[in-house]
Every structure is written in C-alpha cells, then in structure tokens.
Amino acid sequence: MQADIAGFQPTRESIPPPNVNYQQKTVPGLPPNAHPLNPFHFILRAASVYPDKLALAHPDVKHPAFYTYGVWAQRIQNLAYALIQAGIRPGDRVAVITPNSPMIADAHFGVLAARAIVTPVNTRLTPPEVSYILEHSGSKLILIDRDFTHLIGNTNIPTIVCHDTGRAGDPYEGFLSAGREFSAEKGWAGLDVELDENAGAVLCYTSGTTGRPKGVLTALRGSYLAAIGNAVEGQLNRESTYLWVLPMFHAAGWTYPWANVFACATQITMRSVDYPLIWKHFLNSGVTHYCGAPTVQIGIVNDPAARPLPRTISAVIAGAAPTAQLIGQLEQRGIKSVHVYGLTETYGPCTRCYDQPHWKTLTLEQRAKLMARQGQSFATAQEARVVYLPENEDDQELRDVPKDGRTVGEILMRGNIVMKEYFRDPEATRKAFQGGHFHSGDLAVWHPDGVIQIVDRSKDLIISGGENASSLAIELELSSHPHILEVSVIGRTHPKWGERPMAFVILRQEHESKWKDNHDAFAAELIRHARTRLPGFACPEWVQIVVELPKTSTGKILKTNLRKIVAKL
Amino acid sequence: MQADIAGFQPTRESIPPPNVNYQQKTVPGLPPNAHPLNPFHFILRAASVYPDKLALAHPDVKHPAFYTYGVWAQRIQNLAYALIQAGIRPGDRVAVITPNSPMIADAHFGVLAARAIVTPVNTRLTPPEVSYILEHSGSKLILIDRDFTHLIGNTNIPTIVCHDTGRAGDPYEGFLSAGREFSAEKGWAGLDVELDENAGAVLCYTSGTTGRPKGVLTALRGSYLAAIGNAVEGQLNRESTYLWVLPMFHAAGWTYPWANVFACATQITMRSVDYPLIWKHFLNSGVTHYCGAPTVQIGIVNDPAARPLPRTISAVIAGAAPTAQLIGQLEQRGIKSVHVYGLTETYGPCTRCYDQPHWKTLTLEQRAKLMARQGQSFATAQEARVVYLPENEDDQELRDVPKDGRTVGEILMRGNIVMKEYFRDPEATRKAFQGGHFHSGDLAVWHPDGVIQIVDRSKDLIISGGENASSLAIELELSSHPHILEVSVIGRTHPKWGERPMAFVILRQEHESKWKDNHDAFAAELIRHARTRLPGFACPEWVQIVVELPKTSTGKILKTNLRKIVAKL
C-alpha cells in the first residue's frame, strides 16, 4: 500500500488552500453554550488536528486512491457545494448507490454538510426494488458507481456517475471540482449551519425479509451519539485502522463512517467481501478493527489465507450471535470478538455483551454461551428492556418480564439511539413506537445478570407441541457439531405436534465426502447430537444437507425462502 | 489495598436488593427517540454491566472504604432519596465541603439524581469566603467533612457531617441509610427524571485571583459531553485506574468523576496531595491515569520515592504549560504527559495539544516547545479561536487573528462545553458571552498548524518599552535553566521602559547552597541565560530567589501577591 500511496496524486481541486480554516460560520443568535450535535463536525476536527494523516485508503482497484484528512475534508466540502449548486436544499434526499468506496464515505459527511439526507441503496437489490426506494425516498440526486448504473435504468433523477478512479476525467471528480469552483473559496464558513440537531441524517431502507422495504430515517443527534458510542465500545483511536468488510450502505455502516473519523482513525475501503484480500490487509495494512455478521466471519476464519495474526484485531459481530466454534476459531487467529446487537432502527448496534473478568477462568464453550447473548445498553444508548408481549392490540401497558433467563418477551428500546421515524409511514411509526418505546420485534429472555438474550424473531419461533422452541437456540446447539459449517432451523408443520424443527445444514468441506451419499445417516447422527443438548420438543425432526443457504443482500439468512421450500415438501 | 478490600463491609443499607433494576421511571410523553443527556446516567449503566467491579477505593485513612459499582450505585440512590426527604427540590443547591473522599464522588451523582445542583466548596478557603459562597449560592443543605466544620461556623443551613468512615455510626452513613428507608425500595424508578438537559449540574466558584469569586453554573448536557470528551481524550476504559490527585472540588474535578464512570474505570480517592502516597499507588495499585497542574507534577517527579514505573501512566496536565524539563522528568519515570487547557467556565479541559507522529524524531526540548502549546478543540468541544482584542467596549465584531504564531488576541470558545451562566450575575454573564462566544481572558497566538498558544492572561502581559512581553514565554525559557525548580515573572515599573520583567525563582534543593549567599551572582547568570533565548525587552531586569511562591488553593501562582510585594520594593 505504501508504494501506491506515494504514487497517488489527488486532483488539484482536492488540495485545501494553504490558509484553510475548519470553523463553520458563526450564526447570529446561536447561544455561546450550545451547539447542535452533528456527526459531520467530526471531519472538521480530524482535519484540523491531523491534516496529514492517512484518513481514507481505497487500494484494491485499478486506480487506487489515498486521502489524508486534510484532502478528504476538502473533497467533502467540494461535495457539499456541488450538491447545493445542483439544487439540493435542506432536508432533500441524495441517493448513493455504490459498493464500499470513497464516494459513499464522502457522502456521509458531504451530504450532511449540505444539510441534506443520505439515502444509501443496497447494491444487491433488483432494479424494481431500487426504483421503489428512489421513488419512495423522493431522492433529488443519485450518486452512483459505474458498475451499478443498470440498477436505475432511464431515471429522470439527475445522476452523477463515479468511475471510482479518483482521477481527473472521472465524472464524480468533475462534480467535486465544480463544487470547489462554485464555492469561490468561501470554505466551511460559506456553508449554512444546521441548527436542528433532530433534522434527518440518513434514510436507510431495511432489506425486509417480507413486504416492501421500510425507510428508516435517523437524526443528526442520534448519529452523533451512536457514532461516539461505537468508537468508545470498539476502543477506536488515532492508532486504529478500520477495514470496511461491512457494506457502508447497511444501516449507515453502523455509524462507523463517523465513529472512525471521531477517533481520527484510518479507514480502508474494499468494493466487495473478498476473503484473500481481507487477509492481505489483516497481515500487511495494520488493520485493528472491522465489523461483520457471523456468516462473513465464518468466511474469514475458513479462508485458506487465514493464519495467526501478529497482533490482536477486534471483530465487531452483529446480525446474529457468534457460535462457540466461531469465537474459538477467531481467537486462534488472534481476532477478539465483540458481540453487539441492534437494528437499522437503532442506528445499528445499541447493546453489547460485555465480557466479565471472571469469564477468563471458563472453558471456551462456557464463555461462548455467555458471549452469544445480546447484552446490555451500550455507552450512549439509554434503555433496552424485555417486556411481556401484549395480550391484544390495545394493550399498551409495558411490563418487564422477570430476570429469570426463561420468560420470553419482546425487546424494547428507548433514547437517543432510536430512529426518528419510518419515512412517509406514520402508521408504521405509530405502531413501532407504541407505549413510548421502539418495538424491535425480537423475542428475548432477560438473565439475572441484566443481560438480554434473543430467543428469536417473533415470526421465527417454533411452536412445537405447545412449547416455544427458539430456532436460534437450536441453531447454536447444532452448530457445535464439528462437521457443520452453517445451519438454519425453521418450523415445519407436523400432524401430531403442530410444528417441529427442521434443520438446513451446510457441511464443512473436509467432511462433505463422508456424508455425500449418506444424508440419512448424517441426519440420524445430528439428531442424536441434539438430544444430548436440547429438550425433545426442540430437537430437529428433519435434517437437510444443502450447498448454500438463501440470504438477504446483507448476509442474513432468508428463512422466508426456506419456509417456501418446506411448504412444497 | 487487597487485604483492606477483603476486610471491608459496607453498611447494610449500601447493599442493593437482589432484584435491583437500573432503569429509571418511564415518563409519559417523553419521546421514544430522545432522552435528555445527563452524566448521572453513567452510574446506572456501569452498575448494570459491572456490579461487582471495584468502582471507588478510599484506602489511605483510618477507616478505609471500598465500593463496587453495585454498592456505590445503591449509596448514590440512597443519597438522592435522603436529599429529597431533607427537602431538596429540583434546582436547589447542595454544598459539599470535603477533600477528595467518597462523599464528594457520591454527590456528583446523587445530587443530580435528586435533580439538584452540586456546589463544591474549596476546602482551602477562609470561613468568610465559604460564608460568601454559601450565601451567594443559596445552598439549602451542606455535606461537610468532619475536619472542615470550622469553615462554616454556626450556620443556619442544615448540615450533614461526614466522619469519612463508611461505617455505621457515621452521621453521613446515617443520612444515606435514612434515604434507603425513605425510598421504601422504590429504587431508581421512584426518582423523577430530569427532562431538561440544560438544567444546572454543578455550581463552582472560581478561586479568582482578584475580587469576589464568581459562581460558574454548568449544565447537564455540557457535563455529559465534556465527561465523554475527557474519557475519550484520556483513553479511559474499564481497565483504567484513576488516582484522584486533583481536588474533586476544582471545576467538578474537570468532569472526571463522570468520565471515569462512563469508562467503567476504578477511582482511588486521597484526602490530600501526598507525594509518597501517590508513588505508593503508582507502584502498587495499578494506577493508569491522574490529573494535575504542573506545580503538582513537579512535586511528583521530585519526590524521593519517584522511580521508573513498570508501565506507562497518563498524566493529564492543565492549569499551566508543562516545561521541557518537567515533560522529560515525567517521561524518565514512565509518565506520559497529555497537555490540555480550559477554565472552570469550560467544564475544565476543552482543548488538547495533540502530539503529531513526526514529533517522535524531535529532541525533547523541541518536542516540549510544541507540547507546551494549548492545542485545539477536543473531542466534544465545538470551537476555540483567537480573535483581535476589541478596540473599545462597543466593538463586538469578532475577527480571527492570522495563524502566524505572532499576532496576539484573546481565546474565545463556543459550543456545548461552555458554562450555562455566572450564577445570579447576569451582567458578568452578558460580558463573558459578548459576540456569542465565551471570552476566556487568556491572550494567545494562533500557529499555522491551527494550534493555540497562550501568551498570557491579559492582566499578566508585560508592556516593556512598548513591546508586549509574555510573562509565560519568559517563564518557559527561564525554567530551562538547570538550577531552577519553579519560576514566576511579573512586570515591574521601570523609569525608562515603562515596565520590565522581574523573576521570582525557587532553586532546586541540590543547588541552593551554591547560591545561598550569592543571589546577585545567580541573578547575573540567569539574565545571561535569558539573553541567549529571549529578545532584550523580555529579559528579566530583576531576579529574586524565594523559598516559596504564593499560590491559590488550586495551585495557581498568585501574581497579584507578587505584584503587591513589588509595589513595596
């Protein structure tokens, strides 16, 4: 990477003026002792303190690009002016359609600097899905990567195409340069300050396993506080190097685009989840942190390039609980798991499973069992609790379940790290906020130590012989079988028990041949394994070996699709 | 400390109930996605996540006391209820008069939990000064340490005396226990939530080198954000152990009472600045962080117990710039200096001198010169700038001085880390907030790298032959003389030049004898030393060797007193 950095020249318009001033306009009437919280401000401080530090590296492309904090801040300023010149007004939505790249990192600051709302679009969606999002969000402008223009077809919305080169001649670079010209060197002081810290920040559409995606609108105040929470929980600092494995379009990258800049860390963007490349950076680029769902972590530890690391890397894991096996495999390679939990509606992570000093004396399996729990409210989050499910629609009274580790209820959140609203959907917003809390839809128990543990999404719970069987708990136990790489469990209709669990299993490559023509024997073995660990009603009745599992664009297993398969059996 | 911990039993009422719940009341009407920022909340999270972790240790007294987060939180809750039972209502002031001890740590949370305002009183003041503060603040209740009751005489204000034992029979313990009884186990949910994040948090009286002390009232929002800023800048985390060298009554302990709890760190309180004791803790108690003015740091490095430490300790230094010699001496012992700057009006530190990667190649003296600067706005602070001094009273236009490292102006701050007001002094508040910024009264230059450097308090500037000579800059240069322990420079009337600098010097013990009967020779030598480093108008005309320097109760040198001495010469 070092040689590439030395060989890269940012465009002329990316170079800040020699007398650059990182202070925003002084707004008459703004009190001296209050300033609206806004995560975009982090770039002003980082650029002021560490102008020459590497902020953003994009090395693994035909035209690698590397930006110091000083240069990156200028590009962000240029973007803000370019957006304003293009007619973007406060509160307007700007769609961004790109894999991880400098452009989407720019947007998380530049769009906010223009007082507009970032609308990141998942690049794995289909054209009709993208079309729905563009229409529903009312996006006024699209920033799109050259490789994904097919997603938008012949849209009427003004579009800036990025060739991801960082060089003059790239239309996105032209757009930035025009912004610099339009600014007439008025600099940061020429941009209006957003006075409302509750103004919209990011509009993310949930990948929703069923129905139309919903637009989750977050606020500036929440983004500021969530980003600080993530920086603190991850212990990010100016020595950190963060590798973008998680797509930045996913829940605003869990606020890490801002958390990293708050910490004055270095960020490396990769266009795709490429395991050998991840290992190249782990081994050679000083990576200290990354985020990813367990399914990505499984890919990382099982890549042939995987080897013990010279120093510890922190893996922030969310989306599902990491298994004992995964935690063990990560640790063997020098990767420390931090298990967090949250939803797009909670700016990504808002709880963390805090490891306790006395866990050090436990076995890996004991420790992993404790670590698989979703935890407690993290640094800047206010409240996460588990309440009894309402008896009926009108039942709005919230009663906490006892902290007995057994009684199942729904996880509710409150506080600054809860979204502003579902965009243009007051009915869904009202429903989600019933009783003055956000309803996560996740079912959980509350342990005596105050830790919350998800038993399932409400719709994934299996009612087997009148008992509630958590598909998640079953998956955790089954995954301890040494031949299993990945497993998903759903409920299947059963004449006697109502429902019974069915397991879909991907075998580890090295064990595939053994069971190749012997699926029944494997099923029998796995059911035996389950019986030693689970109550009878939670043991799978059926086991099916598969080559892959259906997943959403963000790596979550699509149980809806598995249910469709089962319905046809 | 370990044996003491094992031998300590908190009072029965300090033990939380087995089913303790750390959630506050759900307030009807409070939106699901916003919660007023309040640093008191940090204790709820820390106690929920690490109930059994050592939170607060008070080991160096006849009756040592040690509190886990779980027990401490219960004591804080008891205090809140006890205050309410004693008639304390939202916005009331509660005076706390004690050296560093658990009581004042309790107060920073318990008083806020009762929605009242902490008024810490400097224990080094005289009875008339304390009387003025109690009257001006309108304190409704006094929490006072047994050793300081002489400061309040026969006050009419209800008073709780603490014997600092942590044992049953201590009146303060009785007060806490009564709070537990009054709460009737309603717990945290029985306390009203403060809905206004701009409500008062702490009322600190400045030790003011001239005139009546002013009451600096800070807000909850600012306290929350400043504490997070300090935790982040100090890299405090759950592995940290913070030693209370700084008095907690000084600017709310620079918000560290909250910063440490935000980080889930351990705090050790010491009743006085006792250098051998400090070294005992450095060497045996796992201390990782402490704060103190340079004068205290000088005492630490020069103590006979000083020796190289097995692992690095962070010293957060403010109040004056550390000299090259001090930074070097600290480093020799394994203590890393973090130079920050601020005032009581900015919640303590609000800027930091960030060391840069390329400084590693510099000599200690070069590096120390750069590090002695006051720096740039820190994590959660908004803006610190240097503007031209107003030409007259009505001149309110703020114009930044050029970043040339030469032009002198005044440091101004804006944002969340600026006090709410001067309590009951609208005229002083108006004056301090002219032009929508807080006027620090500190004169500074702005360097090309964006770093602010104080040249002097406006009243300490020496006008020598029409030139502005910074007493601070002169002190920094004189202190490089190897025989000098501490030095202070003021302006003295001069028939020809108007003013000329006069230096008051404390010699290092090992050099005292050499100059004992030869003050004139030392003066000549020091003036020669100065001529090689300073312009003529800034060289001291007079040098006086003294045994000690007059200081405020918080360790700042009282130049007013030096001026009085000079006036009589």
TrEMBL record, chains A, B:
Superkingdom assignment: Eukaryota
Coiled coil: none
MF term (GO), any: ligase activity
Location of region: Disordered: 1-28
AMP-dependent synthetase/ligase domain segment(s): 45-423
InterPro entries: AMP-bd_C, AMP-bd_C_sf, AMP-binding_CS, AMP-dep_synth/lig_dom, ANL_N_sf
A GO biological-process term: fatty acid metabolic process
Pfam families named in the record: AMP-binding (PF00501), AMP-binding_C (PF13193)
Alphabetized UniProt keyword annotations: Fatty acid metabolism, Ligase, Lipid metabolism
Chain ranges of the AMP-binding enzyme C-terminal domain: 474-556
Homology family: Belongs to the ATP-dependent AMP-binding enzyme family.
Name by which UniProt lists this protein: AMP-dependent synthetase/ligase domain-containing protein
Organism of derivation: Rhizopogon vesiculosus
